[in-house]
Write a structure and sequence with these properties.
This protein is of the alpha+beta class and 421 residues long. It contains 19 helices and eleven strands. Keywords: Periplasm, Signal, Transport.
């Protein structure tokens, strides 16, 4: 009897110990496309493995609105979110509120894409871990290129002409709402990424160069903006001025556009069982600004960081290391077409079978254009806001490119006056 009582006592003690050690971790996951579903599967697997629980906190799809929410929470020292999904350009902005992950992540970071690893560091400290990589891509309807006997566009002039030809042809076939090209034109961070691609493709620089010099006011940048503004109302709907990623994808996936600029996440959705364009889509690097231009996709992607105000920072860090690890990145690549940040996964046969294009994207990421977040530091958000507002004025025909760039140059110099950091 005493042995039985001892067994019950031991079991009760173990249960009590488990309940005391188990914690609830909250994580912010984007709900863009399949992100919420794929994130939930990952955190549920970690929860089952560790005995902890995870709560997903929904955040705005707009990157600009999400950053504002994060800044509000962190400035107040709130512990509502333990693990933050952050854009690659936010590390410097939020670093003062994040846990230094160097001790846990230093042994792993060397296996990640160098460009992504660089976005995770601030002053040599590892303030986040790379989760998935992104770069802007051109999506196209292969069936329509075949129908109209047109090649995949290599320059913006090629795209403009091909989009016009296909748009006119499809509208004659009673598709009155068909458009040539859709992209992200709302005044938000997404427009910064898109417009930077246009300007860089014309060799017009990256807004602010690596030395901190403001370079955006130049003839090549003006030419790029003039080209893009010419699309609005011709091959691109005027409504694009309020499009984010999902509005553009909605039009393209409904079969109502020949071309789309978007991130890699849209591939898996375009190939989904309920997609009207399944099996009809191809992807390619974004067009060059001309014969002497370059293919330029803006480096995007997301990192995971731990809040300095988390009451369970150790468990939160463990969740970050699990989600950014090789096995989980592979699962996300296979099931959601999220591009890994771990270099070895680009030659993984299972990933290649599920999403053949991922293996071809290593070069796109290696040559991706970085936003000037590192050099402008805490001021990056101000720089980006001035930039996308100036671009939006050009696209909406409220300003000529040269005028807008001149004002932008003046406004950026004002921000820089006391130093970028």
């Amino acid at each position: 009897m005493s042995r039985l009582i001892a067994s019950f006592t031991l079991a009760a003690g173990l249960l009590a110990s488990a309940s005391v050690s188990a914690v609830e971790i909250s994580i912010s996951c984007s709900a863009l496309g399949k992100e919420y579903e794929i994130c939930k599967q990952g955190v549920d697997a970690w929860a089952q493995k560790t005995g902890n629980t995870v709560k997903i906190v929904s955040t705005p799809n707009s990157a600009t609105e999400r950053l504002a929410l994060y800044q509000q929470l962190l400035a107040a020292g709130a512990g509502d979110i333990d693990v933050f999904q952050i854009d690659v350009v936010w590390t410097g902005i939020l670093a003062d509120h994040l846990v230094d992950l160097t001790a846990k992540g230093q042994g792993e970071i060397g296996g990640h894409l160098p460009a992504m690893a660089e976005t995770s560091r601030v002053n040599g400290k590892l303030m986040a871990m790379p989760w998935f990589a992104d770069a802007g891509l051109l999506y196209y309807r292969q069936d329509l290129l075949d129908k109209y006997k047109r090649p995949v566009p290599q320059t913006w002039a090629d795209l403009t002409e091909t989009a016009r030809i296909i748009q006119e042809g499809e509208r004659k076939d009673d598709k009155g709402d068909f458009w040539g090209y859709v992209w992200q034109g709302r005044a938000y961070e997404g427009l910064t990424t898109v417009a930077l691609e246009w300007i860089a493709s014309y060799n017009g620089g990256t807004i602010v160069d690596e030395k901190g010099e403001i370079t955006v006011e130049n003839p090549k940048a003006a030419e790029a903006l003039k080209t893009a503004a010419g699309w609005v109302g011709t091959i691109t709907p005027e409504g694009v001025l309020n499009y984010t990623e999902e509005e553009a994808r909605g039009v393209f996936q409904a079969g109502n556009a020949a071309f789309m600029r978007n991130w890699p996440y849209a591939w898996a959705l375009a190939q989904g069982a309920d997609s009207t364009i399944k099996g009809k889509v191809g992807i390619a690097p974004l067009p060059k600004g001309g014969a002497d231009g370059r293919h330029a996709g803006t480096l995007g992607g997301q990192l995971l960081a731990v809040s300095k105000y988390s009451k369970n920072a150790e468990a939160a860090t463990d969740l970050v290391m699990y989600l950014t690890g090789e096995a989980e990145q592979k699962r996300r690549a296979v099931e959601g077409s999220f591009n890994p940040t771990i270099v070895s996964l680009y030659s993984d046969t299972d990933i290649a079978k599920a999403n053949p294009f991922i293996g071809d994207l290593a070069d796109v990421f290696s040559n991706a254009v970085a936003r000037p977040a590192t050099v402008t530091g805490q001021n990056y958000n101000k720089v980006s806001t001035e930039f996308f507002n100036a671009i939006h004025q050009v696209l909406s025909k409220r300003s000529q490119p040269e005028q807008a760039l001149n004002r932008l140059d003046r406004d950026l110099k004002r921000i820089k006056r006391n130093g970028w950091q």
